[in-house]
Structure formats: structure tokens, C-alpha cells
């Protein structure tokens, strides 16, 4: 009787592990992927992943062999960035080019955790290649983990496209679609070379923000980000800051002066061209 119970238990455990291994080894066709090199049972070769979303997350325990993550979102042209999780080890991350791999990350490269490692699409897609390092200890739990974010870009050859001032139409659309709308003045500006961002400290007089970041609603000062390459300057007076969260950072997209925004809003309401309620 005892032997029968033990045998049944062993078979159930085997089936669970075997099923888990198959699930983790299959190519993904969604936004995220989590897997283990131990369950893959592959020490060489490349496992393909197919990710169709504009945002997602990849986490690979005990890296073995390699992954090739093909990012193909519903965008014809796009710019993408990845943010590597702290303490990621055991594999290196590359961007696949026409004839070579371009390094994006390796453990101990000395780059800050907040750095966004960015790239542009080719023919509507991007391939990220994750190559496992030879394990120094097969029992050590190395993990590489990163988040990706992809946004539409009109002209892939224009590296400064995201730095261009917004048109009135873009401001109206951004007001209706942004993750945050903040009215306030710039109290400090810091250009951070290590993360390649300009950090604007805003003294806020009004904040509208999406639900996941409601903790912002009771503060007087917030820090917003722009790419360092944009050469952001601190203007005097009151502005309306519109933008979205990207890889944990609130990124400014449009920042019209408050007086200009009020004029845009007035004209849009009078012409009934507003896409949402303009408070």
C-alpha cells in the first residue's frame, strides 16, 4: 500500500514538472515570457520568442544556450528601449543587426540601473538576442530580467524626432491620451549624463494622473524626465506638462505654456474638435 501511494505521488510530480517544462520551453506569442534554462533541457541552440505587444517583460532563470526575442508590435515603425532589472546575471543582451550583434547589456558593465538602452526598428520589428554565459556554478541561480517599451516613430532616420515641439493638434491629442497632466513651474533642472536624461523638478499646482500612480496626487513636487539629447532648458512661468510612464520614468512629451494651452483649449471647444473633456 505504501509503495503504491509513493508510486502515485512520484508519477504526479513527474507529470507536473514535465508539463511545466513544456510550457516554459514554448515560444511566446504574447507580451511577457518567464522561463528556466534548467527546464528547457537545452544547453546549446537558440530558443525563439515571438512578442506582439508594445510593452512587456522577459525573465530567464538559470540561463542556458540563448533566446532570440522577436518584437513585432502593431506599429510599422518604432523606437524601443529596455530597462535591465537590478542584479541581472548569467547572460548578455544584444541587439541583432544586419550582419552583427550590438551589445546592450552585460553584468558588471558599470552602467546605472535607470539607464534606458534604446534602438529603432527594422522592417517593423526588432530582434533581441540573449546569450547565456557559461555557468561557473550549475547550482547558482542566475537570472536576467528586463522590461521593454516600444513607441511609434514617424521617421526612423530622425534621431531628434521625440525632441520636436508639439503642434496644437498633438497637444490636444496628448491631453486626452497622456498618463499624466501636470500644471506647474520648473523649480530645478538637472542633466544626468549617466542615465542620459534631463530631470525637471516641477512645483505642481494641479495633477491629473492614471490610477497606478495615485500617490502623486498629494505631493507638491514631482520629477519628470526628458532625453538628454533634447537639450532641455528651464523656462520661466507656468506650463502644462503632458506625458507617459516609460520603464518606470514619467517622460514629458508636450509642455506648452499654460497661456498657450488655454488658447488651444478655447478654440477647440468653440469648434467642437476636442477629443475628450477639456477641463
Structure description:
This protein has 279 residues and is an alpha+beta fold. The chain has helices at 2-25, 37-40, 168-177, 258-271, and strands at residues 33-36, 46-51, 55-61, 66-71, 78-84, 91-96, 101-105, 117-120, 126-132, 143-152, 180-192, 197-209, 221-227, 239-246, 249-254. A five-stranded mixed beta sheet has the order 1-3-10-5-8. A five-stranded mixed beta sheet has the order 2-4-9-6-7, with no helix packed on it. The chain has a five-stranded antiparallel beta sheet with strand order 13-12-11-14-15. Strand 6 and strand 7 form a beta hairpin. The termini are far apart.
Largest sheet properties: 5 strands, mixed
How many individual helices?
Answer: 4
Say how many strands there are: 15
User: Order of strands in the sheet with the most strands?
Assistant: 1-3-10-5-8
**Helix and strand pattern:** HEHEEEEEEEEEHEEEEEH
- CA-based shape: elongated
**Classification by helices and strands:** alpha+beta
| Fraction in helix | 10-25%
The radius of gyration is 23 Å
Beta-strand fraction estimate: 35-45%
Average pLDDT over all residues: 86
Give the end-to-end Cα distance, rounded to a whole number of Å: 74 Å
Q: List the uncertain runs.
A: 1-26
Could you give the topology of this structure?
Elements: H1 2-25, E1 33-36, H2 37-40, E2 46-51, E3 55-61, E4 66-71, E5 78-84, E6 91-96, E7 101-105, E8 117-120, E9 126-132, E10 143-152, H3 168-177, E11 180-192, E12 197-209, E13 221-227, E14 239-246, E15 249-254, H4 258-271
Parallel strand pairs: 1-3, 2-4
Antiparallel strand pairs: 3-10, 4-9, 5-8, 5-10, 6-7, 6-9, 11-12, 11-14, 12-13, 14-15
